[in-house]
Design brief:
471 residues; alpha+beta; 5-stranded antiparallel beta sheet; 15 helices; two-component regulatory system
């Protein structure tokens, strides 16, 4: 019963099965006969496997040598694929697996056949597709390459190969791409392999004197058992140069604006302010001289004196707004404190200003005036747009940076959708440009109904350390 069951199972397998002992076929199933086109496979049992059973004389030597390797004891199992042909000469592709067994105490070989012709055709189609893909990659103006985790280039398209400084098979990627003797400081290989998303970065290649924008993602390369990443690098030098020109122009405009404000502040304070003050003194003296004159002349002179006094105060206020004297005389901390005190007095807001580590820190004039302008603009937004009742300003110096945070409990907004006149009125672009002028970072966090928080970080210039500190 068991023999019949096993025979039925073997007869219906999709694999062709054979057993060879002393070079003769001692077992062949029906599927073996079908694969090779034999009408009567049973008549082949007992025949020489390599001389009569296996029908393709062109590949029989390969078939025989594999079996000799098994019988030599070097392998217990071997799998391979090879071209073959049927008894009628029809070519096809077979996949074979053979292993060493014993039959009645003597060595024999048990093997299985699979017709893999369709897979071979698919493989050829994939090869053609890969060739098309290679041509497309070589036609790209972007640099496309694949790097292993041990800094070896395993693929480079035409554009990338043309830029390499050495032979791809002999040198590491950092030597080929940048002429360095050790991995690049900004290499993101480790981060790419643990990231679930493609990574994007920009870097300057000192060797090529070019800027590149690179997208990197982990990939699996056939035949390579190490982690690999695919990178696509685009030359953005022209864009960077254009951005730098725009940035330089923006910085120049800011500096010109500050110079003009400084000039107007001095003109208002030293010229117009002094003239108005002199006029007020003259009116006061005239009022004293005419104090005994009948009528309302003394009263009208007194009113004129008050008007002139108001004009002097307005000029001083305008002058201080254009170029705060407290900033020049006392420094950034006191200038901010002064503005906070005025905001509390005029608007009734609760303002909490704290500073840490600023003692002994001397910022450059550009750093002080631009940080001060950011505070001015932020407080202006609180008054005009936020509807806040509380404001917090924190200024912290921790070498090598100064960090400033400004928060409020006002209406807030959505920075991602901030476009048009409303955000122009917030002055965010101007604040960001001022921070950029100082080579710093400007971040804004806000949500409707949840207030706004600005964070500014700027480096402390080394050349400012030797200057006398303003307390």
């Amino acid at each position: 019963m068991k023999t019949d069951l096993f025979a039925s199972i073997v007869a219906n397998l999709s694999d062709g099965i054979y057993v060879i002992q002393h070079d003769r076929a001692i077992f062949l199933n029906q599927r073996f006969g079908e694969i090779f086109g034999y009408r009567d496979h049973e008549s082949l049992i007992g025949c020489d496997m390599f001389a009569k059973v296996y029908p393709d004389w062109q590949s029989v030597d390969l078939f025989r040598k594999v079996h000799e390797q098994l019988l030599s004891g070097n392998y217990e199992k071997i799998s391979w694929g090879q071209p073959s042909s049927k008894v009628d000469g029809t070519p096809f592709w077979i996949e074979v697996e053979a292993r060493l067994i014993e039959v009645q105490g003597e060595p024999a070989i048990f093997g299985t056949f699979l017709d893999r012709t369709d897979c071979k055709l698919i493989g050829e189609a994939m090869h053609a597709s890969q060739e098309t893909l290679r041509l497309l990659l070589d036609a790209m103006e972007d640099r496309v390459y694949v790097v292993t985790d041990d800094y070896r280039l395993v693929y480079a398209n035409r554009k990338m190969r043309a830029a390499l400084r050495g032979e791809m098979e002999k040198e590491y990627c950092y030597k080929l791409c940048r002429g360095l003797d050790e991995p690049c400081e900004d290499c993101s290989t480790d981060h790419v392999f643990i990231s679930e998303r493609p990574m994007q970065k920009e870097y300057f290649n000192q060797l090529a004197q070019c800027w590149y924008s690179v997208i990197e993602l982990p990939v699996r390369m056939p035949g390579i058992d190490r982690p690999t990443k695919l990178a696509v690098a685009r030359d953005i030098t022209e864009r960077k140069e254009a951005e730098e020109k725009v940035r330089a122009l923006s910085h120049r405009l800011i500096n010109v604006q500050e110079d003009e404000r400084k000039h107007l502040s001095r003109e208002l304070h030293d010229d117009l302010g002094q003239r108005l003050n002199a006029a007020k003194i003259a009116v006061d003296l005239l009022a004293q001289d005419l104090s005994s004159t009948p009528g309302d002349i003394a009263l009208r002179l007194g009113q004129l004196s008050q008007m002139l006094k108001g004009g002097v105060e307005s000029v001083r206020h305008l002058s201080a707004g254009l170029r705060p004297t407290s900033l020049e005389r006392l420094g950034l901390v006191e200038a901010i404190r002064n503005d906070c005190d005025q905001l509390v007095g005029r608007r009734g807001l609760r303002v909490d200003f704290t500073h840490h580590g600023m003692e002994g820190v001397r910022l450059s004039q550009d750093a002080e005036i631009n940080l001060y302008r950011v505070v001015q603009e932020a407080l202006n937004n609180v008054v005009k747009h936020a509807g806040a009742t509380e404001v917090g300003i924190q200024l912290v110096a921790s070498y090598p940076i100064v960090r400033m945070r400004i928060r409020d409990n006002g209406a807030g907004f959505d920075p991602a959708s901030c476009k048009g006149k409303r955000c122009d009125g917030l002055g965010l672009v101007g604040m960001a440009e001022r921070v950029d002028l100082l080579h710093g970072s400007f971040k804004i966090h806000s949500n409707p109904g949840m207030g706004t928080r600005l964070t500014v970080e700027i480096p402390i210039a080394d050349d400012a350390e030797g200057e006398p500190a303003r307390k």
